[in-house]
TrEMBL record, chain A:
Gene3D superfamilies: Arfaptin homology (AH) domain/BAR domain, Phox-like domain. Pfam families: PX, Vps5. One of its GO terms (molecular function) is phosphatidylinositol binding. InterPro entries: AH/BAR_dom_sf, PX_dom, PX_dom_sf, Vps5_C. This is PX domain-containing protein. The lineage of its organism: Eukaryota, Viridiplantae, Streptophyta, Embryophyta, Tracheophyta. It comes from the Eukaryota. PROSITE patterns: PX. GO terms for cellular component: endosome; membrane. Residues 11-130 form the PX domain. SMART domains: PX.
UniProtKB/TrEMBL annotation, chain B:
It is a peripheral membrane protein. GO terms for biological process: protein maturation; protein transport; seedling development. The keyword Lyase does not apply. GO terms for molecular function: phosphatidylinositol binding. Belongs to the sorting nexin family. InterPro entries: AH/BAR_dom_sf, PX_dom, PX_dom_sf, SNX2A/B, Vps5_C. It comes from Brassica campestris. Signal peptide: none annotated. Keywords: Coiled coil, Cytoplasm, Endosome, Golgi apparatus, Membrane, Phosphoprotein, Protein transport, Transport. Residues 114-234 form the PX domain. This is PX domain-containing protein. It comes from the Eukaryota. Residues 1-107 are annotated as: Disordered.
Length: 390, 535
């Protein structure tokens, strides 16, 4: 949660996602969140605005940004579905809320994305308007016909290339970009593994906690069978064991929220970069194909002009249109490249910061846990010593 | 059995350890600055480098120094080392040798069972003609005066000999808490792999013999001495049937009751009837807590209370032992997962450094390295902690065996009481018959030669039965004595053992928790620039 800096000369935009509330019944139940925006930007309606949003609204926002800001690493969203019984657990809801809060804030602090009109809609529109937007744009309806054609053409050309055995190089192959792509794909594997082990570690904390709880109980029962001083000592041992168990359960939750979740977020980010890479490849292909087609049209036009054909006029128009489209495609592609270059720098810095924080919190948490455990057990030693020497 | 690793796991950990060692060794030489780390392959033996790179947890406030990593893993002369994969991770020093008589620092007796060997059946016995069997080398190291001062000796024994030993001890030491011998495991011997079964048996035999010599009375018994010392064929007679066992027991009694050179018990025809009677009585007492045969009328309330307590205690020990196993498993897995996490970050560090284009990447690689180092070290501490925990909590497991021994001792008492009570009722019915016969006789004038003879015979039987009854009563009293002193001893030892277990367990937990805490504190300091004190 960020509070606005005092002098309104500094432009600021911050948002927070709070107060998850379960609405609706049964299968249609969902969580709604309060989104509070604080800003002094002129494009916004006033210094503070509160709206109610649900998960699919966030999805809408992301899809819009992906569409309009190709080349930007749009921040990832937490996963959509979850195991049914877990979906409304307090832990899950809190983790999702925190992730959504981070999502919105990342967008608000991104130099390009924060200018987005869709962001303004998301942060300000009343609930009815938002619902209307969401209905129109989510699902398959957010793909425009042109996109469909492009997708179709992509598939077609891939198939025909394969069938005809043509090795048309429609990929960028600059060494730097190759290196980047390789880096991203490898990074995902490494991160996924680290995240997997982090998740298991959470489970181990819980299991160790549970086993200590059961052990404590068993030891207490055993103490009840024994005379003194053994009986009392067993009872104390059991109590301490239960105490340590609680510490472990607490830490498990911390590790989940402050360590495993950031790792998962990292993985999602990398996956979103992979999607951007795919977009760039598409844009590159379009740029190449259109440039080629334009060239062909030019050649054709020259031919017709030489033969003084009456098709010249038509051909000239076609040529100009194609040239314009080609130039647009080139601009689109180059904008993606420029954005990606900037984004990569931001991404690396952001991730170093975020992971640094996660590591630090994890280390602090583990140290706190271990110290707590040591203190708990240590308290038993004087009595044990006394009994031994007796 | 708790804490054991099979071969596959040991191998995996060996290669994991190698990687960890490479990483930690480099780390030990490095300063904390951002320049890229190159994890060079070591040409020296990674395992030998371990003790150096182990962090010095010499906090002044550290309560106690747990054994070092080196001690735990590299104990080549201790037959209980982890690397051998031996199940028996506790030495007899830890458990069961804390009775006052052996607390004198110089007294010790240590038994090792090893070198299983296949041998050919030579005798033409009915049981097996030309088959093979396994013998085990039993080595004893002791300085007890009973065994002739400081010495070491070995014999070869087969499992059948152990059965004989156990049977003989059961006869001679009725009322004592005799540790139960390993099972014959007939099914397992057919089903398991030969090597595995032999190893399992070897471990069980070692445990059994160690327990036997931990018992202050039994360790000095002829049976045990003979078993451990006399080479060649075991000179103890295998007990063939219950009746002669009873006979043996009965013959021994006078010696035990009246001192040396006491007279033997009558074994005339009357005696033989008695023996048959004894045999039937013996077989009627099943070897449980006596619940299913309400023949014995135990009136001693103290005893009944004690027995109930023992039943309850056994149940709680079983329960605690099970939870201890679960705890050990959970600790093990915590250590393993922590190690895997560390390794994953080691790989990430390497990767980021190799691919670094930006300084932010190098910084991140450095942060990851700190985290990975801490995780790998913590993982090792967890695993060390666990192997120590296993040793301590094994005490619970050991006492399960001893509870069985107590059951046996109580069963001896019940059967002895049953003998007494049956003899008493037999006696009264005999006397009844005698009375009737005499009454009938007095009615016939002049007497009846056959009837007179019958009365004489009955009176003879009554006399014998009286004798047997007295012997049985003395036996019963003796067994009660043994029971009582054994239970006292057991209570005392158990208290001491449990106390020692608790202390060891707690000291262990404290020590390692402190070490783990210092590892993570260091990592937190190394990343302190990322401290954002929010919420």
């Amino acid at each position: 949660m960020q509070s606005p800096r005092s002098p309104s000369s500094q432009p600021y935009l911050s948002a927070s996602v709070t107060d998850p509330v379960k609405l609706g019944n049964g299968v249609q139940a969902y969580i709604s969140y309060r989104v509070i925006t604080k800003t002094n930007l002129p494009e916004y309606q006033g210094p503070e605005k509160i709206v109610i949003r649900r998960y699919s609204d966030f999805v809408w926002l992301r899809d819009r940004l992906l569409d309009k800001y190709k080349g930007v690493f749009v921040p990832p969203l937490p996963e959509k579905s979850a195991v049914e019984k877990f979906r409304f657990s307090a832990e899950f809801i809190e983790m999702r809320r925190a992730a959504l809060d981070i999502f919105v804030n990342r967008i608000a602090s991104h130099p390009e994305l924060q200018q987005s009109e869709d962001l303004r809609t998301f942060l300000q529109a009343d609930e009815e308007t938002m619902e209307r937007f969401r209905f129109q744009e989510t699902g398959i309806f957010n793909k425009k016909p042109a996109d469909f054609m492009q997708m179709f053409r992509d598939v077609q050309s891939k198939v025909s290339d394969a069938v005809l055995g043509k090795e048309k190089p429609v990929e960028e192959t600059t060494p730097e970009y190759e290196k980047l792509k390789h880096y991203i794909f490898e990074l995902e594997n490494h991160l996924a593994e680290a995240q997997k082990h982090a998740y298991r570690l959470v489970k181990r904390h819980r299991e160790l906690g549970q086993s200590l709880l059961d052990f404590g109980k068993a030891v207490k029962l055993l103490g009840a069978c024994e005379g003194e001083p053994t009986g009392k000592l067993f009872s104390d041992l059991g109590t301490k064991s239960e105490l340590v168990s609680i510490k472990l359960q607490k830490e498990a939750q911390q590790v989940l929220m402050n360590f495993e979740e950031p790792l998962k977020d990292y993985v999602r980010y990398v996956q979103s970069i992979k999607a951007t890479i795919a977009e760039r490849a598409t844009a590159f292909k379009q740029h190449c194909e259109l440039a080629e087609t334009t060239k062909l049209k030019e050649i054709n036009l020259d031919k017709l002009m030489l033969t003084r054909s009456d098709k010249v006029g038509e051909a000239e128009i076609e040529y100009r249109e194609m040239k314009a489209e080609s130039e647009e495609a080139t601009i689109r592609f180059e904008r993606i490249v420029k954005r990606m270059n900037e984004e990569i720098v931001r991404f690396q810095e952001q991730k170093t910061e975020e992971m640094g924080v996660a590591f630090h919190q994890f280390a602090k948490g583990q140290a706190r846990l271990a110290n707590g455990i040591a203190d708990a057990w240590r308290a038993l030693l004087p009595k044990l010593e006394a009994a031994s020497s007796a | 059995m708790m804490g054991s690793e099979n071969d596959d796991e040991a191998h995996l950990h060996a290669s994991t350890d190698d990687m960890e060692n490479l990483f930690l060794r480099d780390d030990a030489d490095k300063s904390n600055s951002p320049p890229p780390i190159t994890v060079t392959p070591a040409d020296s033996d990674p395992l030998s480098a371990t003790p150096q790179s182990k962090p010095n947890g010499g906090d002044s406030r550290s309560y106690i120094e747990p054994p070092s990593y080196a001690d735990v893993i590299f104990s080549p002369f201790d037959d209980t080392s982890e690397i051998n994969g031996s199940d028996d991770t506790h030495s007899s020093d830890y458990s069961l040798s804390r009775s006052p008589s052996s607390s004198a620092s110089s007294d010790y007796i240590k038994i090792t069972v090893s070198s299983p060997q296949k041998e050919q059946e030579t005798s033409t016995s009915m049981l097996s003609g030309g088959g093979t069997y396994i013998t085990y080398l039993i080595t004893t190291r002791t300085n007890l005066p009973d065994y002739g001062g400081g010495s070491e000796f070995s014999v070869r024994r087969r499992f059948r000999d152990v059965v004989t030993l156990a049977d003989r001890l059961a006869e001679s030491y009725r009322g004592f808490c005799i540790p139960p011998r390993p099972d014959k495991s007939v099914v397992e011997s057919q089903v398991m792999q030969k090597q595995e079964f032999v190893e399992q048996r070897r471990v069980a035999l070692e445990k059994y013999l160690r327990r036997l010599v931990a018992h202050p009375v039994i360790r000095s018994s002829d049976e045990v001495k003979v078993f451990l010392r006399v080479e060649g064929k075991l000179p103890l007679q295998a007990s063939a049937d219950v009746a002669s066992r009873m006979l043996d027991g009965a013959v021994k009694l006078p010696r035990q009751l009246f001192g040396e050179g006491g007279g033997g018990v009558e074994t005339a025809r009357g005696g033989r009837d008695l023996l048959r009677l004894f045999k039937e009585l013996r077989q009627s007492v099943s070897n449980d807590w006596g619940g299913s045969k309400p023949l014995v009328v135990e009136e001693d309330r103290d005893f009944l209370e004690k027995k109930e307590k023992m039943v309850d205690l056994e149940q709680q020990i079983i329960n605690a032992s099970q939870q201890a196993e679960t705890l050990v498993k959970a600790q093990q897995e915590m250590g393993e997962t922590m190690g895997e996490l560390g390794l994953a970050f080691i790989k990430l560090t390497k990767f980021e450094n190799e691919e670094a284009v930006f300084n932010s990447q190098r910084a991140r690689a450095n942060d990851m390295k700190n985290l990975a180092t801490a995780a790998v070290k913590a993982s090792r501490f967890y695993r060390e902690l666990n192997s120590q925990t296993v040793k301590h909590l094994d005490t619970l497991h050991d006492y399960l065996g001893l509870m069985l021994a107590v059951q046996g001792a109580f069963a001896d008492r019940s059967s002895a009481l049953l003998t007494v009570q049956t003899l008493l009722s037999e006696l009264s019915s005999l006397e009844g018959r005698a009375e009737k016969l005499e009454a009938a006789l007095s009615k016939v004038f002049g007497g009846d030669k056959s009837r007179i003879k019958k009365i004489e015979e009955i009176k003879e039987t009554i006399r014998n039965t009286e004798d047997a009854k007295n012997v049985a009563i003395r036996e019963y009293e003796r067994i009660k004595e043994n029971n009582w002193s054994e239970v006292e001893r057991l209570d005392r030892e158990r208290r001491a053992d449990f106390l020692s277990m608790m202390k060891g367990f707690v000291v262990n937990q404290v020590g390692y928790a402190e070490k783990i805490a210092s590892v993570w504190t260091k990592a937190a300091e190394e990343t302190s620039q990322y401290d954002r004190e929010s919420s």
